[in-house]
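Sequence design from tokenized structure. All designs in this work follow the same two-part layout: the structure record, then the generated sequence. An example of the structure record is given first.
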């Protein structure tokens, strides 16, 4: 798999290749997510320090994160001292604290890890290849019913989760890999076969949100590239692809029983229910989106927009409304835990990154735009507040926005 604008290989890619694989693995032990990527990141940082390579952390990022941690600790102590109607579990508070510190570490460390552009390229290649391999195995396990693969790669009998601990998280990784593949890799048969595998693996996750985002991103990719393409080849190839797809699906629907067989796959049937059941699909099959959104808003109001600090979100929801579930919305979750002030600063940061991605969008380089669009849409339906991958990705996007990084990368 070849990527555009790559002319030089790094002499020390192994750890970054390993990191690309490790980001696909996560497991929960005593309420804390552990990932092999933590160990790899520590190795990379140790190597940089040992070799005495120069790096520096941005003061504005460090100041914001330290201020947020201190603020959340103050709010947590306020709840413990003054909220007598709550029974607080110290283990929950410590678990939330460490989860947040780990995520902050991933955000801060991006500037250290990717001080050269080639290191980032090594990570992206490894990430996409790992996504395609895991995705292929999930498709295989779903179609052929391979029991040992299902035990390793599936959340239950229906939904694949890869090596992660949640099908939605797995779907986000596969969507992100698809975006990276389509926007960065050179045109080839392997590229489109890999894309087919990644799309198929998204369907094995059974994520309704992922399906809607996949459709939206695909339409955006098609429309923007049609208007930005200068030679017209993209327009012609896109129209031909659409016509062939329409003809193929029409033929399958009318003359074969293929659609019935496809719908018989539980994960696909679950995903497509969002079109049949419409709003009802939000609250069936374990989703309960509207219910947990309302619960999250109630927690924001209860905290008087100050947030609940490191107090366990699900425990507060259980006491207020009898709902012990996360908000399934990153924006609501952030406001309920960080408070309005820090939440709005973070939302401003996201808006800045998205507007920057629009400003720099080109036919040949729209990766940041599509990644940001994927994240912002997925945040509506899933809470990724403690996601290592999201934190690292946003930090890299922020780093790429720095023109000095691009200049340094050109010399790497």
């Amino acid at each position: 798999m070849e990527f555009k604008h790559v002319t030089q290989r790094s002499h020390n890619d192994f750890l970054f290749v390993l990191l690309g694989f490790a980001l696909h693995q996560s497991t929960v032990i005593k309420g804390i997510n552990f990932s092999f990527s933590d160990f790899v990141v520590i190795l990379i940082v140790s190597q940089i320090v040992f070799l005495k390579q120069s790096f520096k952390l941005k003061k504005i990022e460090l100041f914001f994160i330290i201020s947020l941690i201190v603020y959340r600790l103050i709010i947590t102590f306020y709840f413990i001292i003054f909220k007598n109607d709550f029974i607080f579990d110290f283990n929950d508070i410590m678990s939330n604290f460490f989860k947040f510190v780990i995520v902050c570490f991933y955000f801060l460390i991006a500037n250290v890890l990717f001080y050269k552009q080639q290191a980032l390229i090594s990570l992206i290649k490894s990430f996409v290849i790992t996504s395609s391999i895991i995705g292929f195995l999930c498709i295989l396990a779903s179609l052929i019913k391979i029991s040992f693969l299902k035990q390793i790669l599936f959340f239950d009998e229906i939904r694949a989760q890869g090596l992660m601990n949640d099908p939605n998280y797995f779907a986000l990784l596969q969507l992100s890999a698809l975006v990276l593949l389509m926007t960065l890799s050179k045109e080839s048969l392997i590229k489109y076969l890999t894309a087919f595998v990644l799309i198929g693996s998204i369907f094995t996750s059974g994520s309704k949100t992922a399906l809607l985002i996949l459709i939206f991103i695909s339409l955006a990719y098609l429309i923007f590239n049609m208007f930005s393409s200068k030679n017209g080849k993209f327009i012609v190839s896109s129209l031909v692809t659409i016509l062939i797809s329409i003809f193929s699906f029409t033929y399958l629907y009318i003359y074969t029983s293929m659609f019935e067989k496809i719908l018989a796959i539980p994960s696909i049937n679950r995903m497509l229910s969002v079109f049949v059941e419409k709003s009802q699909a939000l609250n069936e099959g374990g989703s309960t989106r509207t219910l947990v959104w309302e619960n999250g808003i109630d927690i924001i109001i209860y905290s008087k927009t100050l947030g609940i600090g490191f107090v366990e979100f699900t425990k507060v929801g259980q006491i207020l409304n009898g709902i012990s579930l996360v908000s399934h919305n990153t924006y609501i979750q952030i406001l309920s835990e960080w408070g309005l002030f820090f939440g709005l600063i973070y939302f401003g940061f996201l808006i800045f990154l998205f507007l920057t991605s629009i400003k720099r969008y080109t036919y040949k380089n729209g990766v940041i735009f599509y990644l940001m669009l994927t994240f912002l849409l997925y945040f509506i339906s899933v809470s990724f507040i403690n996601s290592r991958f999201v934190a690292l990705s946003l930090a890299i996007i922020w780093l790429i926005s720095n023109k000095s990084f691009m200049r340094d990368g050109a010399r790497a």
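Residues 5-11, 404-412 have pLDDT under 50 and may be disordered. We note this feature because it recurs in several other targets discussed in the main text.
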